[in-house]
Design brief:
291 residues; single chain; Rossmann fold
Length: 291
């Protein structure tokens, strides 16, 4: 289904936090008011990307789920706060923003979550809240596992790619080309490379990027593994065969969340919603309908 054929609305909602009011951008596909299924809230990765690369999830409206996307504070179309100290960027900030969005649309008692990468990491800390079901897509339960896996995969590339990646933003053009070579294998194997994903990646990886969130210490030493037993909702864990979230990175979710199921998409890397879109949407829809 074309996105133009689906009822949509977009805008900004006020987000009060620590005596200031910020703006959270949202985009909704489907009809929230006359829904027959709980709405799905999609949490983007990064930290520091945007909702754009996750837009294939609007396909789930074909299964009667309204789908809500938003740009987390500090990113894309939401309020940017480059002058805030690194300590401003906390899990509590992003929890409060999500809770504010749920209450704004009056869905706090009935919703599903799809968290991709950082979005799943963030929501796994949100264990005291209760969605109807949780989808953890292409994410690690600890930052150490993610870093180990990424290094292993990068080490298999030619030396010139590794050297250019190490240059970082100070020598942006070779850095970006190197990162795209790695992403073509382990980030998104779809061809052509989705423009929406390229846009989101550039939000964090260009000389003019606002990297306030990306460079914050929010994930320093982060590990949720020992609290996963507290997740007491049906949970679907997803990764791709060529994912940065390799099987050993993904396995602790399945091992420690009591009511969980794990699917690996064999032709995908980090974004199976682009690489095996139809199969991915069918799997998500079936899981959420049964949850």
């Amino acid at each position: 289904m074309s996105s133009s054929a689906i009822p949509t609305q977009e805008g900004h909602i006020d987000f009060p936090y620590q005596g200031e009011t910020h703006q959270t951008y949202y985009k909704i596909f489907g009809d929230l008011q006359n829904r027959t299924q709980p709405p799905i809230v999609v949490l983007h990765g990064g930290p520091g990307l945007s909702h754009d690369y996750l837009l294939p999830h609007f396909d789930l409206t074909e299964q009667s789920f309204p789908v809500i996307f938003y740009d987390q504070i500090g990113n894309a179309r939401s309020t940017h706060l480059p002058d805030k100290p690194p300590t401003f960027w906390t899990f509590d900030l992003f929890f409060d923003e999500l809770e504010n969005l749920l209450k704004h649309f009056d869905i706090q008692n009935e919703y599903h979550i799809i968290g991709h990468s950082w979005g799943a990491m963030m929501f796994s800390e949100f264990v005291t809240r209760r969605p109807h079901a949780l989808v953890i897509a292409d994410a690690p339960p600890s930052i150490a596992l993610w870093q180990k896996s990424f290094k292993e995969l990068v080490d298999k590339f030619p030396q010139d790619v590794k050297d250019d990646l190490a240059k970082g933003l100070k020598d942006w053009e070779p850095y970006w080309k190197a990162m795209m070579k790695i992403y073509a294998v382990h980030g998104c194997r779809a061809k052509p490379f989705p423009k929406e994903l390229e846009y989101s990646l550039l939000l964090n990886n260009s000389p003019t990027s606002d990297r306030s969130v990306a460079t914050s210490p929010i994930l320093k030493d982060w590990d949720v593994t020992d609290r996963l037993h507290l997740v007491d909702v049906p949970t679907l864990v997803i990764n791709g065969r060529y994912d940065i979230a390799q099987d050993y990175v993904t396995k602790p979710w399945k091992d420690n969340i009591p009511d969980s199921k794990w699917i690996t998409f064999e032709e995908s890397s980090h974004t199976p919603f682009w690489e095996e879109r139809e199969k991915y949407m069918q799997s998500i829809g079936a899981f959420l309908t049964e949850a």
